[in-house]
Design a protein that fits this description.
By secondary structure, this protein is an alpha+beta fold. Helix content is 45%, strand content 22%. Helix 4 crosses helix 6. The longest helix is centred in the last third of the chain and has 19 residues.
């Protein structure tokens, strides 16, 4: 039986000390925002690392963009080969995952329940199966078409640079592709223009920051690429129907 013993959504501070430890159990960290290092490998949102029992690991946040991650501790024995069946690496290392937003929302609720049912191994086994069976990116996925690959590259560029004063022209220029052509591809594969997707991504990150930090709205605005907090608030209200402050108060 493999079961969850503990977990949390943690927003690390830039000065958090390095953790270097021989793991007593199986540990997984899912990076949901920011950056950090696992065994000197830089990880960003959508990346995760697993450390198997008795393996040495070292990890710490990036100084300028410290990561937020969901960490989970598993105990017991994997008699059902659950890790293998869920496409987890067979040894300690890094892997990709697709469910950043879902995991961010799910973690506080699930781990609170685990803590309250610490002695209920059947419940905590079910939680382990639920977390591990979430959509891990498969290495053998069908390769995207050439057109779709441009959209994927553009999305990756946006994810890495949304916090700057990024423009559609800069995105197209970085990919050495015509702006209008890129727009047409975005509409085809996402239903949004390049600009709409950029705005959508910034708003999504803004919501995450409102949920997991106590930063002022002007700080969050700057963190998602807005130099003017008023312009950010207007854009946020247009997107979600309420101001950032009211959205946070509802939470």
């Amino acid at each position: 039986m493999l079961y969850v013993t503990k977990g949390a959504l943690e927003a690390c501070k830039a000065d958090k000390h390095r953790i270097k430890i021989v793991c007593p159990d199986i540990w997984i960290h899912y990076v949901v925002s920011g950056k950090g290092y696992y065994n000197d490998t830089l990880l960003t949102a959508g990346k995760a690392f697993i450390v198997y029992k008795n393996d040495l690991c070292e990890y710490y946040p990036h100084k300028n963009d410290p990561w937020t991650y969901v960490w989970v501790r598993f105990s017991g024995s994997d008699d059902e080969n659950l890790l293998k069946r869920c496409s987890m690496p067979t040894k300690s290392g890094v892997f990709d995952f697709d469910y950043v937003e879902g995991l961010t929302a799910l973690a506080p609720v699930v781990f609170s329940a685990v803590e309250k049912r610490a002695q209920n191994l059947s419940f905590n086994e079910a939680v382990a199966k639920m977390i591990l069976s979430l959509n891990v990116k498969k290495i053998a996925e069908i390769s995207p078409s050439r057109d779709e690959a441009w959209v994927i590259k553009a999305k990756e560029y946006i994810a890495a640079n949304y916090h700057t004063r990024l423009t559609v022209e800069q995105i197209a220029g970085a990919l050495h592709i015509d702006r209008q052509y890129l727009r047409n591809l975005f509409v085809k594969y996402t239903g949004m223009s390049t600009k709409q997707y950029l705005d959508f991504y910034r708003m999504k990150r803004a919501v995450e920051l409102l949920c997991i930090t106590q930063n002022d709205v002007n700080v969050i605005a700057a963190s998602v690429g807005y130099s003017d907090s008023l312009a950010f608030s207007k854009a946020f209200k247009k997107h979600y129907g309420v101001s950032p402050t009211k959205y946070r108060n509802k939470l």
